[in-house]
């Protein structure tokens, strides 16, 4: 588990592994890996800059100077995660793309310990982390819009389909059930939520009325 | 704002107001109101049993003895909220019932301060609170199943419709966007999510295959 295993969609190696940038990049990677490991083991309450520095094998003043506090460390975990080349699944149909995407989310949210769930929880504690999480989610949903544009090109969906609303509808039930309602994980959940969104999309649920796009 | 204003669906007066139960019930109400007020003003980090006791005007040992700690106090806020007679909206159609339900959720999640959002955040801090929140949500979703059974009786939906999945699909986008993604509140959101779920339901998204119900 690395700092970049963030879901909803990310299970890519962190960027500093792919683009080794010398000592600074290496230290960043060590520190962010240590944040994720400490968070997974002890939760937010056990997460301290000192523990992160010790685990990463760097001097505590390095951590203070560069990241400031726990919120700054968490924010950088989110920021590092979006600096990758993750792309959503491309399986040939809207429903199966959404199902594959939901499988990634389901896996991230049901991993034990789940770094994603721990980071979501931590974002309720730190405004800096919350803002970075918002940026990461915005990035992930923006990348996923290609799922919808491909479906439009294939003729599966009408051109004026609101991609973001469709993607939120497809993925929201997983977050709601696994993070908030804490229901038992169900292997059918990813496919069912994908099918629900695809059926609603085909029925025009996400089609913007022409008026909203001007004349 | 009282301890019972919990959403997704509850904006009822707390039970102890409707069924005055003497001193014990009155103290419980004072204490739970104080928990909600302290949580709204200071968040979880400012919530202490001493501050709650002071605000409620009861002795601190009364709070310790009866609720133990902050987790116990929060759990009782959730438990008190489900001890009411809240029923979901009954407007005559599936889509408008879901839209009215979503309006209640949207109002609860966008109130400032939002007690519901503060309680969701607090549930990531206390296992006792998290379990009580799960019980309350289970209670609320169970009560909402009548929305689906009424639609089945009206012939809007096939008999073998999975009520819970439909209700989660209808409501999840609001929680996802307002609590996790923290997108800007949008007055169209409740109706759009309701329409999406109703269209998916009409297209058979929540219809259980006969095999799952046996012969």
TrEMBL record, chains A, B:
Keywords: DNA-binding, Transcription, Transcription regulation
Keyword Transmembrane helix: no
Gene3D superfamilies to which the protein is assigned, alphabetical: Homeodomain-like (1.10.10.60), Tetracycline Repressor, domain 2 (1.10.357.10)
PANTHER family with a match to the protein in the record: HTH-TYPE TRANSCRIPTIONAL REGULATOR RUTR (PTHR30055), TETR-FAMILY TRANSCRIPTIONAL REGULATOR (PTHR30055:SF148)
Chain segments carrying region Disordered: 1-23
Domain HTH tetR-type, chain residue ranges per copy: 25-85
This protein's name: TetR/AcrR family transcriptional regulator
DNA-binding residue intervals: 48-67
Pfam families given in the database record: TetR_C_11, TetR_N
Species this protein is from: Streptomyces macrolidinus
InterPro entries referenced in this protein's UniProt entry, alphabetically: Homeodomain-like_sf, HTH-type_TetR-like_transc_reg, HTH_TetR, Tet_transcr_reg_TetR-rel_C_sf, TetR_C
